[in-house]
């Protein structure tokens, strides 16, 4: 598995420095408050992802209320789900400036506001703005910090922690579906939006639980030594992360210079404050406001500089070829998971299996097994002799194979077996933050993972309509699975090719140096 120096504690320039800086570990890393972070993230997944998975209940109500086409009405839930992920890079800017806790609390308020304003909807287009955009942006502001904080608090058991927290999506799908169905029956869909908005305020509580680690604790993660098997693979594939460092992304010298400049600004304001103590109370109040504004300006400038350099600077994350391949993979992967949920009911009708599917829906099989897949794959990935990267690839290969073979299954039993495998192998979603962190390091996890979920959001937003367009042309659902599966395979091939290229580069360089 590829990894950055921050993660495995190796300085490849000097092997003698391995583990040479023992630091007393924080009891809250891999234990203590870290499990409260997992609980917070678990609840976030229930309230956000679980609610979005249950939007089919509200979609029926909106169809009856506004008498619009199914395609137009479906864009409300698609916008909410897509924007939650697409805004990832911009949420990374908020995290750089405000931190995960404040970002999540603001997002919780915005999400609740979106639900409440949607209760006054007079048209579907009104819902586009209030529910699709407002609630969607709020969801994104809570979702990304929830994933990033788990990565900050866990080092040895990251895959298990991410797996446990993301199971909230599966539990939430069942809980929120039952809750929304009950509320709509008893109180109507408008009052349901009010009640759900009040429930969504609990996201602010989840955000408050995201207590930030001190910089010292985050830096100490550099010196955590992993197993020998992972270390050997890290040395071989760490050149992707090394590329970023050589180009200056991980360099802290510009930040130090900027911090020195910022401190000078604050010191000058403090001197003015001290010198003006003899002045009137109004002048002192004005100086305090000036000091607060100066501190806020410093924080914003510093956060924006980090965010900008990560995305658009000369030494951005995009100089990492494996990371770019990871983005290409993400563009095709998520739609391949979403499409079965959309088209399976139609396939069941086509094969006249509705009676059996009504007893135990195939989509429910995927959702239930998906929960276990996340936890089990997380446990396997944390084993000392297992590479997270290899588990991630194997799960991807299994899923794409099932996507390609699903249209060939024409009995309920065979479809159920394939759906169960799809649910289990799609548990690799819990490994995505772990793989991203191993590639770019904990420091850049928020910005890097923001790009990854943005790619997933684009896939979720445009994948299902694309599959519907394919059906309109061919009048068959089979081609939707085949085309999405082939595109998914292209993304996996990119993941396989780039690490091989990264392996060859240092060898070629050493040969040239030997000739010189």
Automatic annotation (TrEMBL):
Cell compartments where the protein resides: Membrane
| Annotated GO CC locations | membrane
Q: Which domain of life is it from?
A: Eukaryota
The UniProt transmembrane annotation reads 33-60, 72-96, 103-121, 127-148, 160-180, 322-342, 362-380, 387-406, 412-435, 447-467, 479-497
Q: Is Cell cycle a UniProt keyword of this protein?
A: no
* Record keyword Aminoacyl-tRNA synthetase present: no
Q: Which UniProt keywords apply?
A: Membrane, Transmembrane, Transmembrane helix
One Gene Ontology term of the molecular function aspect: monocarboxylic acid transmembrane transporter activity
Instruction: Note the topology in the membrane.
Output: Multi-pass membrane protein
Ranges for the Major facilitator superfamily (MFS) profile domain?
37-503
UniProt cross-references to CDD domains, sorted A to Z: MFS_MCT14
Stored InterPro entries: MFS, MFS_dom, MFS_trans_sf, Proton-linked_MCT
PANTHER family to which the protein is assigned, alphabetical = MONOCARBOXYLATE TRANSPORTER (PTHR11360), MONOCARBOXYLATE TRANSPORTER 14 (PTHR11360:SF239)
Q: Can you name this protein?
A: MOT14 protein
Query: Upper lineage ranks?
Result: Eukaryota, Metazoa, Chordata, Craniata, Vertebrata
Q: Which gene encodes it?
A: Slc16a14
């Amino acid at each position: 598995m590829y990894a950055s120096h921050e993660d495995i504690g190796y300085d490849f320039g000097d092997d003698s420095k391995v583990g040479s800086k023992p630091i007393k570990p924080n009891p809250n890393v891999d234990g203590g408050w870290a499990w409260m972070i997992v609980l917070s993230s678990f609840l976030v997944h229930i309230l956000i992802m679980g609610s979005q998975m249950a939007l089919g209940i509200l979609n029926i109500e909106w169809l009856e209320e506004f008498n619009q086409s199914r395609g137009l009405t479906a864009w409300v839930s698609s916008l909410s789900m897509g924007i939650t992920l697409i805004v990832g890079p911009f949420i990374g800017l908020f995290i750089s400036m405000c931190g995960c806790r404040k970002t999540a609390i603001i997002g919780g308020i915005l999400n609740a506001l979106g639900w409440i304003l949607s209760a006054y909807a007079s048209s579907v287009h009104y819902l586009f703005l209030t529910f699709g955009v407002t609630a969607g942006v709020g969801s994104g502001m809570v979702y990304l910090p929830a994933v990033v904080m788990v990565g900050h608090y866990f080092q040895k058991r990251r895959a298990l922690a991410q797996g446990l927290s993301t199971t909230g999506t599966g539990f939430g799908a069942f809980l929120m579906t039952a809750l929304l169905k009950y509320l709509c029956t008893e109180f109507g869909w408008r009052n349901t939006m009010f009640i759900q908005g009040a429930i969504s305020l609990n996201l602010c509580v989840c955000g408050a639980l995201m207590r930030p680690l001190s910089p010292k604790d985050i830096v100490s993660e550099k010196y955590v030594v992993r197993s020998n098997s992972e270390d050997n693979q890290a040395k071989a594939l760490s050149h992707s992360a090394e590329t970023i460092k050589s180009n200056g992304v991980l360099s802290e010298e510009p930040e130090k210079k900027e911090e020195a400049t910022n401190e000078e600004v604050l010191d000058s304001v403090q001197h003015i404050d001290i010198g003006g103590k003899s002045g009137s109370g109004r002048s002192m109040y004005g100086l305090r406001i000036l000091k607060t504004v100066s501190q806020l300006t410093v924080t914003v400038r510093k956060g924006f500089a980090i965010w900008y350099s990560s995305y658009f600077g000369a030494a951005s994350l995009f100089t990492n070829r494996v990371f770019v391949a990871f983005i290409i993979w993400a563009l095709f992967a998520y739609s391949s998971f979403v499409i079965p949920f959309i088209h399976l009911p139609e396939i069941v009708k086509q094969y006249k299996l509705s009676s059996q599917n009504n007893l135990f829906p195939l989509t429910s099989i995927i959702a239930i097994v998906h929960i276990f897949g996340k936890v089990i794959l997380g446990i396997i990935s944390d084993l000392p002799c297992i590479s997270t990267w290899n588990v991630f690839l194997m799960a991807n290969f299994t899923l794409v194979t099932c996507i390609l073979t699903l249209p060939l299954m024409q009995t309920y039993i065979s479809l159920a077996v394939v759906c169960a495998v799809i649910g289990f192998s799609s548990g690799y979603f819990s490994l995505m933050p772990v793989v991203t962190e191993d590639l770019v390091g904990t420091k850049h996890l928020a910005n890097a993972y923001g790009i990854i979920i943005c790619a997933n959001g684009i896939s979720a937003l445009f994948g299902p309509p694309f599959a519907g367009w394919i059906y309109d042309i061919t009048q068959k659902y089979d081609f939707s699975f085949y085309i999405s599966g082939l595109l998914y395979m292209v993304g996996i091939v990119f993941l396989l090719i780039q690490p091989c290229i990264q392996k060859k580069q240092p060898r070629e360089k050493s040969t040239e140096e030997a000739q010189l």
